[in-house]
Amino acid sequence: RVLNLMIAEADEATIRAMQRELGEVRGQVRERLAAAALALPAAAAEVRAIEAAFGRVMEATGEAERAALAGDREAALRAVQERRRPLYAELRRTMRELVERVDASAQRAAGEAAADAGAAWWTTLAASVLGAALSAALALWTMQAGVSRPIGHLDRRMRALAEGDKESPVPGAGRRDEVGRMAEAVEGFRLAAVEQDRMAAA
């Protein structure tokens, strides 16, 4: 979500502040993945695979950030849509597979826990820590991705308005978030253009 706002922002100081915020999110995700690897050593290889996938997503994110800082919104959107989105889908798939394996492992361990309650307690705790860490990481990235598609629609609508399409509605105008406020602004431009045409015709 912050990345998409960064792409839409024109002020360099604000973009840099958002970049710092993304850096904090990256740090939190890395900390949670490290905690997951420590909590469940049996899944360390899978966690490393997630860390590698996360690194690829961060490379694509960095490309979009650099384009946004350079003021090239088209390149930033292209980096998000063409590079980051497929990598993010791969990261989510990898995380989901690991969560399913960990969940299956936890269920097996729970079945065997009748024989050794102490061992089951530690396994369940480790699986819970890993699941919470992965869920938190997935939630952080899902929040970021939730704005990129509406921003793309809004971008296309702004281009159409610039090319003279004053009749089509502005997507996202009813939303109650940053995208909605941007859509409301574009709607204002559209209505002003319609009013100008009406006054010119009169």
Describe this structure in words.
The protein has 202 residues and is mainly α. The protein is built from 7 helices and no strands. It has helices spanning 2-8, 12-39, 44-69, 73-112, 117-145, 148-162, 178-201.
Strand content: under 5%
- How many strands, what sense, and barrel or not for the largest sheet? none
**What is the element string, with H for helices and E for strands?**
HHHHHHH
Mean pLDDT: 83
Number of helices: 7
* Strand tally: 0
Helical fraction: over 70%
Distance between the termini: 44 Å
Low-confidence stretches: none
Which structural class do the helices and strands define?
mainly alpha
Shape: elongated
Q: Rg to the nearest angstrom?
A: 22 Å
Ordered list of secondary-structure elements with their pairings:
Layout: H1 2-8, H2 12-39, H3 44-69, H4 73-112, H5 117-145, H6 148-162, H7 178-201
Helix pairs in contact: 1-2, 1-3, 2-3, 2-5, 3-4, 4-5, 6-7
Report a brief summary of the structure.
With 202 residues, this protein is mainly α.
Keywords:
202 residues; mainly alpha; 7 helices; elongated
